[in-house]
Model the fold of this input.
Amino acid sequence: MRTSAVTVFDPDLTDRLAVARQLDFVDYEAEVPMHTHRKGQLILALHGAVTCTADNEIWIVPPNCGVWIPGGVPHSARATANARLSYLFVEPGAARLPQECRTLSISPLIREMIDRLARERADYPLDSHAARLARVTLDELSEMPHERFNLPISGDPKIRAMAAALTTDPSDRSTLGEWAKRVAMSERSLARLMIRETGLTFGRWRQQLHLVVSLRELASGATVQAVAAELGYDSVNAFITMFRKATGSTPAQYFARRRLLEVTKRASEE
Done:
């Protein structure tokens, strides 16, 4: 049986400002159970995809971005079978990073520096090159812009039940009125609850769910046709239109940029 990723490395055993690790999930269980640590954690997907649950939201780690989880925040994750992830663990107060979970744009420079830091031991000397690299990495990271690739689910049991059901079956096209009957509320009351708890209308919230699911599935190797069908779209074009409105590009363009970055990285390593 594969081991759990949380047993591989305890970031809180070192007091260094930042330490990095890389994991290939072909060797570990896809489900990472709910856990917490003192250090904050940045999660990058080098290949494949990972979906995190933290702070009453579902977070997707898309290409060119990372999910930042502050220290002390309970979180869990699910990685695709082909996922290769990079983790950066940051000592509290070591950098000007958000006090809540955020999706951050990640420059190629930061990716390279985290990759380099992952080759260092966790107790590197305080006056070493690794220590200076960690400091520069944190300075650069604090300047990265925020993105929004998350799905708010709130702590409300009715919203969480809807999120669980639609995450399991994202093709469910039930109307808000039909969902209101399932959770024993009036349609108007559920509409108000949705906006109050998530900041989104039901339609926008479900579209964001579809974006989260599609990014995860496309990154794991699924075709656009298969993802469109899984999400219940009447046509591939309808799915592509939704994706373009949400990200500013088609799925092909979005992932072409990722492949270009991977090719560039491999070329630099050679």
